[in-house]
Amino acid sequence: MQTEHQIVNAVYRAKEDTDKADALIHSYMPFIRSQATKFMGRLCTDQDDELSIAMTAFYEAILGYERGRGTFLSYATLLIRSRLIDYTRKEAQHQGQISLDEEIGGEDERSLMDTLADERDYYEESAHREATRQEIEELAAVMAQFDVCFSDVADNCPRQERTMEACAKAIRYAGKNKKLLDELLRTRKLPLAQLVQGSGVERKTLERHRKYILTMLLIQTNGYEILRGHLYHVLKKGDTLV
Amino acid sequence: MKYLVMECRPGYAIVLGDDGTFLKVANIHYAVGQTVTDVVPLKLPESFAQPKTNHRRWISSLAAMAACMALVVSSIFFTGQMPYASVYMTINPEVRIDVNRRDTVVGVEGMNDDGAELLKGYDHRKKELDTVMDELVDRAIDMGYLHEGGKITLSLDGNDTWIANHGIHLDQHLNQHLTDKITVTIDIQQKQPVQAAPTIPAGTIVIPVGPDHYGDSDYGVEEESDYGQSDYDDSGLGDSGYEDSIYGDSVYEEPEDDGQTDYDDWSEESEYEDQSDYDTPQDDAQSDYISPDSTDAGADNGDSGYEQTDYETSDENASDYEDADSDYNN
User: Fold this and answer.
1) What is the ipTM of this complex?
2) CATH number, domain at A54?
């Protein structure tokens, strides 16, 4: 009973604080792993995707748990199981295809992947990934000055297509007016009024997704070439139309 | 769609799709800066994804409360408009005046053509019963319905206390009102509720009887004794006698003939149990005769119908009476 209270409190703290949620997940890794193992019917290793899914499900359980609706761990068990079932169903569509790691007979245990010509340049790829990582870290640092983190942005991101389009309109407008971006960096305030005036999007919409728009504007400020390249379709759509 | 991994955490990863969406997805061994194509998005619980629901629920409960209030208020308001008692005023024009508990007139209606004529263009709203009566009498005088020496009949319809309270009061009031004008007789009486005459639905009863004595007298009140006793007395009572002598054996042996046996029951019942069954011509008799089920039931009883125990079941026997007639006549 006492332990149950502790975990309930821990869960409620973790709902507010992502770091605490991480800590909670870490401390319950054996539980999560045991659930995944039970589901898979074999030992679940760190390499298994199922473990990741189970961890995510545990995090969802933290967010979704409510006091007075049963014990947390049984809820988490249920959720982990459901998500693993979802995942296996989703993966089932790939059945009937051979894995690249499949061994193809022969003496020297060569896998199918080894026989294929490898067109990917691993060195360049890892360099590109490293560059991207740096860019993202920079961006995160700048965002921290605005007191925004990626988790906030993900929660704040528009989910409806129409809202998304409206926000993209404002973002494109800002991209074309570098003065706005400069002002943003200088005053550390989102120039909402000018965005509304310039893009014709309703202020309420922008207000509601303030963090998302802020991040997207920051991406357009300076540098972040890779990110901008990734978001090419969003940021340049207006140009292609005009 | 391509996703760029922005942040990795044990519980989830945040990716940026190339359509500009930030998503929380399951972190399947992702690393920051990696580009992935297939992601498993986090399913946020309802309460978390839509924190507004609480607000909405509050509003809806408020709306429900308001609706209830409106209902209560309107019902209170409309009960004031419900007629509580009526006064039928007959000069020659007959009008009905409906009043509520507080003697405020809630409706007037002409009961005949002259009454409708009298009420034409008359506005009764928000007037007391006395006022309306006075005004209507004045109108009747003006329109020539009421002459010197005429007669006004007031029929009161309502509960007893109301009638007791208002009978004399109305008389006095009208007399006082008419004192200076004309002299009329005022007759106060209690409205007799129109009694629904116990109509005998004789038309619906079809009795396939021959020309003999069963015809109408079966159901008739006055000939009941006749039917019950004189006709069947001899045969009907005794089981043995009934079987043997009068109706004949062949009749009993046939399966359709239960009617006969039940007929016997019927007559006996009528004699010994209630005469009153015959007096009330309405429900029992009618429905039972028509219903086909009861004849089936009668068929079952037919075999054993001769035993004493079966005589107690009155309904089935009664229902089988119809069959009995026809069979008997055959």
Assistant:
1) 0.81
2) 1.10.1740.10
